[in-house]
Amino acid sequence: MAVRENSEIAPLIRHPSTPPAPTQDLIRQVLGVVVQFEKANLVSKLKAVGDRQPA
User: Fold this and answer.
1) How does pLDDT run across 5-40, given as a tens digit for each residue?
2) How far apart are CA 49 and CA 38, in angstroms?
3) What pLDDT is recorded for position 18?
4) Of residues 34 and 55, which shows the higher confidence score?
5) What is the DSSP string of the chain?
6) CA separation (Å) from 46 to 6, 29, 35, 50, 52?
């Protein structure tokens, strides 16, 4: 895997003293929703596997 320059990532990283841009808020919120979905999906799958195994 080739190492990329940080020029693509740098605009998404902001200094803590600067207020967040609306686009950054949107991206952070969307990624948060995706993480919640993935977690719920994984928990559901693990529960289904646990329910199938005999106690």
Assistant:
1) 555 555 556 667 777 789 888 999 999 999 999 999
2) 17
3) 74
4) 34
5) -PPPPTTTTGGG---TTSPPPHHHHHHHHHHHHHHHHHHHHHHHHHHHHHHHS--
6) 37, 26, 16, 6, 10
Dihedral of CA atoms 1, 3, 13, 31 in degrees, nearest 10, equals -10
| Angstrom distance (rounded) from CA 13 to CA 8 | 10
To the question of pTM greater than 0.70 for the whole model, the response is: no
